[in-house]
Amino acid sequence: MKAFKNQGLYHQLQFWGTIQTDGVGVSIFKKTNDTAYGATVAADSIDVPYITTLRAEEHQEIAGRCVTINPGRRDLLFCVHESSTSQEPHTFRYTSSYERKMRKTTKYRRFELAVKEDNTAVQQAERVLAQVTGKTIDMLSFMYYLFVREQQAGILRPFYAEERTNHVTSHFLFRKLRLSAYINRMKSDHKLARSLHDHLNCARVG
């Protein structure tokens, strides 16, 4: 493919096996023999102390405010306060079904399927694209994925980029759905953090 050909003066820029993708766009990294890729800058990490690293006086400060959290399959979070007993349980449960309800994931998915229901060309293109994957480190497999995706792009790109709502304002449909999903996710996460504080008043320790 043209994207992988050598470039630059005397074709010194060559592909050395590094590709970066976010699932939509693709960046192909090329370099000469005497150059190296730039170093990755690590993001600043939040310094949160763990229970095992706290001093005795710090344990006294958080006494009665600790919460144990155990993730499960249906329960994304199941929290028990340290003062909880079988007679007086002090728990908080956050399930995957409640998360879907808060984020309206199922609603948006059903709406998207309904929009595509009468468009057989889009359905067929997505079935073809589902047969290949871009999640691979094999160059030939990834090149084949790009080839198949480009073949179907003429059908999928107009549908996802140009489909509009039926409202008077006529927004781009899928952009509006993505924005709404993002806003709902932020609201859901904020409500979860507030609920943890209100129900358990937990201390911020690992």
List the helices and strands and how they pair.
Blueprint: E1 14-21, E2 26-31, H1 56-61, E3 67-69, E4 75-81, E5 91-95, H2 96-103, H3 105-116, H4 120-129, H5 139-162, H6 173-200
Antiparallel strand pairs: 1-2, 3-4, 4-5
Structural class: alpha+beta
Major β-sheet annotation: 3 strands, antiparallel
Output the radius of gyration: 25 Å
Mean pLDDT: 76
User: Total strand count, please?
Assistant: 5
State the end-to-end CA separation.
49 Å
Count of separate DSSP helical elements:
6
Strand order of the largest sheet: 3-4-5
Shape type: extended
Q: Helix amount, in percent? A: 40-55%
Indicate the low-confidence ranges by residue numbers.
Answer: none
Supply the number of structural domains. 2
The succession of helices and strands, N to C, reads: EEHEEEHHHHH
The amount of beta strand, in percent, is 5-15%
Structure description:
The structure is a single chain. This protein is of the alpha+beta class and 206 residues long. The protein folds into two domains: 1-33, no CATH class; 46-200, no CATH class. It is 43% helix and 14% strand. The chain contains six helices and five strands, in the order ββαβββααααα. The chain has helices spanning 56-61, 96-103, 105-116, 120-129, 139-162, 173-200, and strands spanning 14-21, 26-31, 67-69, 75-81, 91-95. The strands form two sheets. It has a three-stranded antiparallel β-sheet with strand order 3-4-5. The protein has a two-stranded antiparallel ribbon with strand order 1-2. A hairpin with a 4-residue loop joins β1 and β2 (26-31). α4 (120-129) packs antiparallel against α5 (139-162). The longest helix has 28 residues, at 173-200. The mean pLDDT is 76.
